[in-house]
Amino acid sequence: MTHPDVPAGPSGAPVTDIHAHVVPRALLDDLTAGRVRFPHVEVRPHESTHVVSFAGGTPTRPIAAGLFDHEKRSRWLAEQGIERQVVGGWLDIFGYGLPADEGADWSVLLTEAISEVVRADERLIGLGTVPLQDPERAAQALAACRAAGLPGVMIATRAGGRELDDAAFTPFWEAADATGAVVLLHPGFGGAADRYHDFGLVNGLARLEDSTVTLARLLYAGIPARYPGARLVVAHGGAALPYVLGRLVRNHLVNPAITADPLESFGRLYFDSVIFDPAALEFLVGKVGAARVLLGSDYPFPIGDLTPRQVVDRAELKDGDRAEILGDAAARLFTGAGGEAAS
What we know:
The chain has 343 residues and is an alpha/beta fold. Helix content is 42%, strand content 14%. It has 13 helices and twelve strands. The protein has a five-stranded parallel β-sheet. It has a three-stranded parallel β-sheet with strand order 1-4-5. Strands 2-3 form a two-stranded antiparallel sheet. β11, α11 and β12 form a beta-alpha-beta unit. α4 (100-119) runs parallel beside α5 and α5 (135-147) runs parallel beside α6.
């Protein structure tokens, strides 16, 4: 389905997909050819693509062609009527299991490679990576991303055996607050217990549980309220959080000594539209306001919404709300005047 004649809205902001992934082809080529070497990173051919192992662990899933095939991405953007796309790395290769020093170097290399992809295509906006297993280095990497002109970073829900509300992450949240960074929170593998291994439930449900628990902890710890300069964007429509917020509030009222008011932090979150169901999108917009809901796809994965404008078109929304979701909110959050990445 194409949208050649549908403008983003009265503002003229470009239609922007704020949730997509990339694995830079040049980085893959350098690693495969041995031009770049890391002691605990191994890239191996797998059929028509590659798999990657970190610190002797289980190899990643095969790297999908859509992650590194720029022509395929370009065709998809045109077909979907999407004018800008925010790209972060692929969570499988963030390297959180690497030793701290090596992880920091890997994060720099991956961020630089993403930046090269973005520089080659003015439609793309890059998000950096950080060595989240080392919060101090993660803070430094985040500050470096902002200094380089990137709007922020994509991170997983935990690293190094720590939850994101752990006091060890204070330097990271302080850096995000001080620099006004976008932090796109994306589920990792934390919810993949044995009970999810049937029926494709790791992707179908476990990742949503992972996000929901992380978000509940962040809200009860008061992290978004404490660091208002950080712009926390949550993948997959916030998972179950918007729906269960009332229960979290009730739990806070029962346990006020150990929980911050979740409403105070909830009002500072942003959400993507990767929820597939128009009625659910209507509920989310009613809950948080259209200015905090942004178009997303999770490109290029089959579990993502690869026709992302359809759910916005089908939902019963005001024209102004539709314009916010398609591009207006993203223009404010990710870009400044002239379309350059916010800094």
